[in-house]
From TrEMBL:
Record protein name field: 4-hydroxy-3-methylbut-2-en-1-yl diphosphate synthase
Protein's UniProt keywords contain Thylakoid: no
Keywords: Membrane, Transmembrane, Transmembrane helix
Transmembrane segments: 31-51, 71-104, 116-136, 142-162
Keyword set includes Membrane: yes
Length: 166
């Protein structure tokens, strides 16, 4: 399956998301790192725009930034990429742990690695919403709560398609 097919199925089919638990980890890592790369590019663009705004207000820094610009931008992109990777992996792992509890409560069979993969694909819609909110520069704790709740609802819907324990 291509990354686009995975993405497309993650938008509308909880049954396929549950089946994605069997996808090889390499394809899962390609999917998550492509998302992290997109998030890092967006963060980097806002970082560059923030530096430009700060440079205009402080004339002394303008010369300093022009001298270290070739060094500042690559390191800041790498830092943003690593930070986004850490945050997204932690977020998916926390939701996967909650998903494993949901599996136990629903008496379904599944290992943590399976629910982790399912959680990644179940997080697609909430991640898209997060990207849109970041682009629009909308930040609100209630919106984050809605995004987290949406993730849990999708995980709950996907666990219905896991095999029943016998």
């Amino acid at each position: 399956m291509s990354l686009f097919q995975l993405f497309q199925s993650s938008l509308h089919s909880p049954k396929k998301m549950a089946a994605f638990r069997l996808i090889p980890i390499g394809k899962v890592m390609q999917y998550i790192f492509s998302y992290i790369f997109i998030m890092s590019i967006i963060s980097f663009i806002y970082f560059i725009n923030g530096i430009s705004d700060q440079q205009q207000s402080m004339e002394g820094l303008l010369e300093y930034f022009s001298q270290i610009q070739w060094l500042l931008y690559p390191f800041s992109f790498i830092f943003l990429f690593v930070l986004n990777t850490l945050l997204i992996f932690v977020r998916i792992s926390i939701f996967a742990y909650i998903g494993s509890i949901i599996l136990l409560l629903r008496k379904r069979k599944g290992e943590f690695r399976h629910i982790w993969r399912t959680t990644l694909f179940a997080s697609t819609i909430p991640m898209i919403i997060s990207i849109i909110l970041a682009i629009l520069q909308v930040s609100n704790n209630y919106l984050q709560l809605v995004i987290y709740t949406l993730t849990l609802i999708i995980i709950f819907l996907t666990t219905k398609y896991y095999p029943v324990k016998r």
